[in-house]
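FORM 7B: Structural annotation worksheet

SECTION A. Query
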Amino acid sequence: MEIFDIIEDELDDFMYRLNRPRRNPVFRQRINYMQALDDTDFRIRFRLTKHAVNYVFLLIVNHISSTTERNYAISPINRLLLTLRYYATGSFLNVVGDFTGTSKASASRIVNMVSQAIAKLGPQFIKFSDVIKLQQEFYDIARFPRLVGAIDCTHVPIKSPGGDSAENYRDRKSQFSFNVQTVVSANLKIMDIVARWPGAAHDQTIFNNSKIKQRFMNKEFGNSLIVGDKGYENTFYLLTPLQNPITPAEHLYNESQIRSRNVVERTYGVWKNRFPVLSKKIILDVSRVQPIIVACAVLHNIAIEMKDDHFEEQIFDHFTETETELNRNIQDDNVRNHLINDYFASLLR
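SECTION B. Predicted structure
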């Protein structure tokens, strides 16, 4: 008899679900923030000016438009604003959805769609510009010659991706993250970005497998240089600081190198403060994180091009290299020695 009772209970449950009244769709009110907010409040909430948002919107509108107007479809501009609000808060998707009158599921799809559309603008906005101009801008900082960029990595926290590869994303602070490499200019623009490596990857490993390394090895930028910290190998195109400077020229080289390299730390502070999602834990599937990182880099560069003031700058902590890593960073010392003995020594005369 027990089996028949179970079948009867399941049948009753099925009939109830079949005959119960369907929920009516809820259409939430959607505010036109472009009109409702003044320029100051708009920029605080979306981290970009209205002018910048309109500029980005025109570039991606064809990629984020709905194919139908039925069922109260979310307009393309609201899709962009929802995504910007997510970047500006790093909040839960249901909170972001409530802000723009959409469901959590819709918010998730929209953030992914818009992030991919903006990330595809990378080749247009994330690139090296006039080499001579780059060199002059760095020279104006600390008189370091031939310098076109500063390189470093920063960690973007994520939730545990789960599965067998989860530990690959655990960094040295025991947090799950992406280790993101950038090369930046003197005016804090991101000129190259690699955002696909898990948090456990070492900075040098990321650089060794990057296209930007090959471009410098092939002398695509002539005799131009980039600077990095002691975690990188010193080469003929990437110069690191001396571990134990002795002579006045060596001290001057280190001072100039460190001051020039500081722009990458400032860039991370400005970038993450404009888009706090990069410093909070991104609670999305790991496959959706990379487009968000690259999209925020594109928007960061657009903001600089449009002379949009930085938000209050913060300097974010970076990992210090271990002594073993510090001691292996001399691969090719000829260029560095030449600069110290010829150029920096001459500045002291």
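SECTION C. Observations
The beta strands are 147-157, 177-184, 190-198, 225-227, 238-239. The chain has a mean pLDDT of 88.

SECTION D. Sign-off
Analyst initials: ____
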